[in-house]
Structure formats: C-alpha cells, structure tokens
Amino acid sequence: MLNKFIFATGIENSYPTIQLPNGKIFRVDEMQKAGHYTFWKDDFYLVKELGIEFLRYGPSYYATHTGPGKYDWDFTDKTFAAIKELGITPIVDLCHFGVPDWIENFQNSEWPYYFAEYAQAFAERFPYLQFYTPVNEIHVTATFSALLGWWNERLTSDKAFVTALRNLCKANVMAMHAILKVQPRAIFIQSETTEYFHAEEPNECCLERAAFLNEKRFLSFDLTYGHPVSALIYNYLMDNCMTRKEYEWFSTNMIKKHCVMGNDYYLSNEHMVHHDGSISNSGEIFGYYAITHQYFSRYRLPVMHTETNISEPQAVSWLQKEWANVYRLKQDGVPIIGFTWYSLTDQVDWDTALRENNSQVNKFGLYDLDRQIRPVGEAYRSLISKWQEVLTSECYGLNIYNF
C-alpha cells in the first residue's frame, strides 16, 4: 500500500564504456565526474534540504560486482547507512547503462544470471529496502550500445540490438524475482524513456517507418510485462535471432503486479521521421501528458514520472510544464504516484550523450557542482511544500499490487 505521493530526485550514476579518439576504452563514471564520491554526505543533506524524501540512487554496479559471487560493498554500506539515518527512501538503481569489465557488454547471454545473483545479494544485505529500478532505461541502453554504436559493445545492427534488449529485459525480470525472494513486498519502478515518432510527410516510406518505430518503442516494457507484441514486431524479433522460446519466456515469468511504470520525458524524446526514413529530434509536440496516456492505455499500471530536466535558463518553466502534465494525468484518473527532477546536481558530458570525454558541465541539476542551489532547485522545493499534503490525501489507499 502506498499512501504518499513520491517527490523524488536522483544522483546520476551512469557508467557506460566508450572508445576515445586514440582507441582506448574509457569508463564514463558520472558520479566521479560530478564529485559524488567526494561529496556524498553533502549530497544527501541537499536532498533533505529540498524536502525530498525519495532518491533514485544506486552503487556503481561495475565497481561493486567484482566477479561471480564476489562483491565490494564498502562504499555501498557507507552511503546506504547515511541514507537510512537521514530518513531518505532510496529507489535503488542497480544497473545504469553499463556492466563490470568481466561481463564485457550486453551481448553476453550469461549476464542476466549473474545480475540476478547480484540483485539478490544486494537485497539480502539491505533487506529493509522496498523500491527498486533493477535495470534503468533498457530501450536507451540497447539502442545506444547496440544499434547506434555509441556505448559498451558499440555495435550497429538490429541483431545486436535485439540481443542486448533480450538480455537486458531478462536480467530485469530475473532480478525482480531474485529480490522478491528476500523482500516479498518489493515495488519495481521501471524507469524507461517515453518516445514518439512523427511522420513528416504522408508518403509510404515515411508513414511505414514511423508506424514501425512507434511499435518498437514499447519493446522493453512489452517484454518486461509479458505484453503481446504485434505481428510486425514479432517478425522483427524472430528475424533478428530471438527464438520463439526466448520470447515466450517473458510471458511466463513476468510479475506485473509488483510494478510501477516509470516514464522519462525530455525535450529529445519526440522524433521526426523524414521522407527518406532518416530521423531527427522534433522537440516537444505531444508532450508528456499525451504520450504517457498511450503507455498507460497499453499496460494499465500505476505510473511515475521518473526523469526530466532541461538546462538553465529554461529549467523553471520546464518544471512547471512537466508538473502541469503530471497533475492533469492525475485529475484524469491515471494512477500517477510520483514525479522526479533528474538529477540532484549538474551532470557532465550529456550534451554528447556521454560519447565524448570533454568534462563539459550540463546545467541540469537542482544544484550546481559547487553544491549551490539553482533556481529550479528553489522552484522544486516550493512545489513540493505546496503540493505534498494535498497529493498525499489524494493518493491515500492506492494499492499498486491490485490495480
């Protein structure tokens, strides 16, 4: 039973590997770049300073899972003890865009089993924790790693994409089962990108390409929640080396009743499909409200707005706009349980989607990297103080297990 609306932020903990111009492989660790390993105590106090009770947070998976059945919990023990002492509720982020070096990458079909083992070990170490995001943004991870060639395996084929997607979704589901063995009332908030593809022109190529991509955008949720895909997408999966047995595994292993559908929305989430099939960012056309309605209609699950941001000086107006979308969904009967500005502090090198190591600060945070509050931080604190009591009473009694 959840009786409190979740106002959250997160500490950005991406850690994919990229290839530098000199050919060397480089681990992009956002917590290192943003100074969290040095200022972690201060960062948790900043969360409390804003009146935020929920924090999307997790250890660096690549540094914590040191081998099969082997873990380094030193930093994790310190940070989660501090979070508990401050009365912050973590939404535990177990895998965020990367894997340990010994796993290599998301093409490794053995990884889901190792990851489930890691998830259970984490839950056993912290059995009081209830909220988890086992694998963050599966669709983004598979796309950037295996279709666009930017991260990790840096491949560029539909076969590689389907392989990565299958492994990521299987790891996600297996981790949920593993955690439930320890914490039977665990709640899984699956943070995932919320996408839409617009056809620029009414020609056949443009319309067909947009229609396909608007089916494909659901794949990570479809597999995780055991939702039947269309014939078009089923053929795509089979043509790219997913077997019928692998596909059917998801429908027999899903645990939808423990899930909250987390939808992330940024200015880059809507796309324009051009006459030649190419794609570009369209900017906001439908917005979070309309697109989230599409996802909710498909899965009928409780919803949480799990990520958004924009750089200064547009941040405050963007916060107001996203909040208006969230509240309108709630007024329309969508069981939306939370909202997140991501992240607590500014980020680094997301202007190139972490593909380059430029140390370029991106002003997305509620605080800057000197831990000074930004105008959007002030605005978010004010929003929480004004809306928390109202929404707590409206949210009271929502049983996410039986929706």
Automatic annotation (TrEMBL):
Keyword Magnesium: no
Entry's Gene Ontology BP terms: carbohydrate metabolic process
Keyword terms: Hydrolase
Keyword Cytoplasm: no
GO terms for MF: hydrolase activity, hydrolyzing O-glycosyl compounds
Protein name, as recorded: Glycosyl hydrolase family protein
